[in-house]
Structures are given as structure tokens and as C-alpha cells.
């Protein structure tokens, strides 16, 4: 595994004493993405702060709010937000090109129900999101860290699921999706072990049909044509 000059793994955060599940990469920022950050960032990009976010003030209204971890380039997030104008969406992503891409789509589609935070999702959930304040949470296609020695870096693990569940109001949901079967099995086990969550499907295998609100991406369509599987898991927060 790669190491920095101090000898610590690149994913180790000495200030938080925990392993991070992502690698911060600068990436290549296009001109359009840079312009979107400059022009739309002040309105739609919320600064990280170690204080509870006033969600109603951030959106200028009171509405059910869905939290998304790792929106990538934002195509799915923008589609969902456009189809559900009655809901607020907070998307968290660490990579600048993805933030710029989604801001660009927000501008092109005149989406007013999205706010973005460019920061570590665990810290955002811990410090900015009040317990019981979310109507739902999305974690779509997180990095599977497919090598066995890297499995511990996977996002969906007990501590994060417990934290997410604590921020979801009773009756709200946690929706995860993956195209890596072994990760799907782990997700099912971890989500099933969280006492405040209940699986929302009666299917014997425990996986849910893809909810209509989650669009099928081009990458996913290509995989399905090649016979690759996709697994959705939807769990409901219990009273």
C-alpha cells in the first residue's frame, strides 16, 4: 500500500485517528466546471462547519431532506432532484470535478432544491446534521475496495451506518446500491445488524427492486448488458 513521507498510509487521518474511505484527488477541472464553482458555488455550495446546519435556512423552505454520500459527477443526483422538486437534497462529495459537474447541472436545469458540501461525509454527518433531521439517505455505488486487504476501507460499515441511522427520522429510509456482489453481501449484513433499521423488502435474498426514483446510469446499463448484477438495499428507520 502506498505511503506518504511520514510512513503512514495515505488514507490515515492523524487528526481524526481513523481510516478514511477515500483518496482525495485534485482531478482535472474543466473550464465549465470551474465557472460553475465560481458562479454557482456561493449559492449552492455550503461551507463545512463544526456546527449544526439550519436546513430550512439553507434551502429557504421547510421540506423533507435527503442526504447523499459521494455523488460522483452528479448525473444521478441531478435527475433525482429534478424529479422530486418537493424534497431537499444535500449532496456530499470530496472531489472538485464532481462538485463542479453537479453545480453545472444545477445551473443548466435550474434546480433550486440542491445544496452541496465538499467535505468528508462522516464529519458532515457528525457535526452539521442534527439527529432525526433527514427523510432519507442515498449511498450509490461506493468504491468497492475489491481487494481483500482493502475491505476495511469500505464506506458501508457498522459505525457509519449507525451514524447515518441516527440522523434519519423514524419512517425515513437508507438506500444503498452496488454493482459488486461481494460488497452487496457485506452491505446486507451490516445494515441488517443495525437495530434501528428494518429491511424494506420481503424478498428472500434481502435485496430490493430498484426504486423508480433511482435512474439507471449509462455505466450500469452497459454492465447489465454484459450480465453484471446490481443490488439495491432499502432499509427503514424504526420508531
From TrEMBL:
Pfam families: Methyltransf_4. Residues 149-154 are annotated as: Interaction with RNA. GO terms for molecular function: tRNA (guanine(46)-N7)-methyltransferase activity. It comes from the Bacteria. Gene3D superfamilies: Vaccinia Virus protein VP39. Catalyzes the formation of N(7)-methylguanine at position 46 (m7G46) in tRNA. PANTHER family: 3-DEOXY-D-MANNO-OCTULOSONIC-ACID TRANSFERASE/TRNA GUANINE-N 7 - -METHYLTRANSFERASE (PTHR23417), PENTACOTRIPEPTIDE-REPEAT REGION OF PRORP DOMAIN-CONTAINING PROTEIN (PTHR23417:SF14). Belongs to the class I-like SAM-binding methyltransferase superfamily. TrmB family. This is tRNA (guanine-N(7)-)-methyltransferase. It comes from Herbaspirillum rhizosphaerae.
Amino acid at each position: 500500500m502506498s505511503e506518504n513521507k511520514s510512513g503512514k498510509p495515505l488514507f490515515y487521518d492523524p487528526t481524526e485517528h481513523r481510516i478514511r474511505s477515500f483518496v482525495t484527488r485534485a482531478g482535472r477541472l474543466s473550464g465549465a466546471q470551474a465557472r460553475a464553482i465560481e458562479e454557482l458555488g456561493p449559492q449552492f455550495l455550503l461551507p463545512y462547519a463544526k456546527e449544526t446546519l439550519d436546513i430550512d435556512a439553507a434551502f429557504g423552505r421547510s421540506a423533507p431532506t435527503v442526504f447523499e454520500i459521494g455523488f460522483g459527477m452528479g448525473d444521478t443526483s441531478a435527475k433525482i432532484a429534478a424529479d422530486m422538486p418537493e424534497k431537499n437534497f444535500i449532496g456530499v462529495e470530496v472531489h472538485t470535478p464532481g462538485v463542479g459537474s453537479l453545480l453545472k447541472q444545477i445551473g443548466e436545469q435550474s434546480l433550486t432544491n440542491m445544496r452541496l458540501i465538499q467535505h468528508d461525509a462522516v464529519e458532515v454527518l457528525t457535526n452539521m446534521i442534527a439527529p432525526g433531521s433527514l427523510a432519507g439517505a442515498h449511498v450509490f455505488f461506493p468504491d468497492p475496495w475489491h481487494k481483500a486487504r482493502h475491505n476495511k476501507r469500505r464506506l458501508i460499515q457498522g459505525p457509519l451506518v449507525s451514524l447515518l441511522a441516527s440522523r434519519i427520522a423514524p419512517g425515513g429510509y437508507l438506500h444503498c446500491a452496488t454493482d459488486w456482489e461481494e460488497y452487496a453481501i457485506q452491505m446486507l449484513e451490516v445494515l441488517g445488524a443495525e437495530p434501528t433499521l428494518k429491511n424494506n423488502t420481503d424478498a428472500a435474498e434481502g435485496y430490493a427492486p430498484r426504486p423508480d426514483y433511482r435512474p439507471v446510469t449509462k455505466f450500469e446499463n452497459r454492465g447489465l448488458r454484459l450480465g453484471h448484477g446490481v443490488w439495491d438495499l432499502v432499509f427503514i428507520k424504526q420508531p
